[in-house]
Amino acid sequence: MIVITGAAGFIGSVLISKLNQEGFKNLVLVDDFTKVEKKNNYIHKAYLELIDRKAFFTWFGKHHQEVKFVFHIGARTDTAEFNTELLNELNLDYTKELWKLCTKFQVPMVYASSAATYGLGEFGYDDNHEIIDLLKPLNPYGISKNEFDKWALKQAETPPFWAGLKFFNVYGPNEYHKARMASVIFHAFYQIEKTGGMKLFRSHNPNYRDGEQLRDFVYVKDVVDVLFFMMETQPTSGIYNLGTGKARSFLDLAKATFKAMDIRENISFIDTPEDIRDKYQYFTEANMQKLIKVGYNKPFTSLENGVSDYVEYLKDERYL
């Protein structure tokens, strides 16, 4: 059996599709399944069992001999969440307990870290372990993810294989439930559909022109390909970046969305809100050399091709 936590969410549900496509149906899905807005993410997929996240550790204790791999994708991912107790419970303590069980039962695991751990990028975007203690995340979510990375690296006892994947700006199908936390492409599509135009944040940094703030946007189909590679090959344990390795501008993103929707470009600019202006990232780009060196050689989808593919899902509110 393969366990996926956060299975009803965005990346977790697309991972189920990937595993189904590869012939895996022996999946145990873990999440809070009372959230009906996520039901379409998993209801039509092949799996063995749904387990509430609060009951999962008990279930794992009873069935660990049957579990071959754990994908721990579940987390509180709201970057505007300031309830540190909640973030510690869901992102830190829960993951520590799962790590200890995977270590005890010798089950390999992959968990979701985040590029939010890099903060303003003062130390770059390299996934070498030496800088993790130095990183300065900008919000409690990023702090909770970095605290677990730091904890994991200090552990003498580990699962037989483990990897923490620092997801950069992931976009793609199955994020309908995420509301304001959905990707910029999701919001761009609906803004253009409703108004015929797209508003981007104006630059307040003299080194960047309006709309030329840069992010590493990575398509969710590529993300789950990497997750599958990690399960199949189980390379050197450690923390890995998961982006494309190529930063692109918000202007590129907006232009690609207009083109995919076959609507004439109509882009304007608004001030970045003052309450986030001093913490606004103007550049993120994953150094992907570590993943490449352990054998991952599949090319990443370009922003233009990813947006074009995603827009086809959004037009019909189709799920993957």
Describe the structure.
- By secondary structure, this protein is of the alpha/beta class.
- It is 36% helix and 16% strand.
- The protein has helices at residues 10-21, 56-63, 84-105, 140-153, 184-195, 220-233, 250-261, 274-277, 289-293, 303-315; strands at 2-5, 27-31, 49-52, 69-72, 109-114, 162-167, 169-171, 198-201, 214-215, 217-219, 238-242, 248-249, 267-270.
- A 7-stranded parallel sheet has the order 3-2-1-4-5-6-11, sandwiched between helices. Strands 7-10 form a two-stranded parallel sheet. A two-stranded parallel ribbon has the order 8-13.
- Strand 1, helix 1 (10-21) and strand 2 form a beta-alpha-beta unit.
- The longest helix has 22 residues, at 84-105.
Largest sheet: 7 strands, parallel
Measure the end-to-end span. Answer: 22 Å
Strand order of the largest sheet: 3-2-1-4-5-6-11
SS-derived structural category: alpha/beta
Following the backbone from N to C, one meets helices and strands in this order, namely EHEEHEHEHEEHEEEHEEHEHHH
Number of helices: 10
Global outline: globular
Radius of gyration: 19 Å
Which band does the percent of strand residues land in?
15-25%
Low-confidence stretches: none
Beta-strand segment tally: 13
Helix percent reads 25-40%
Average pLDDT number: 94
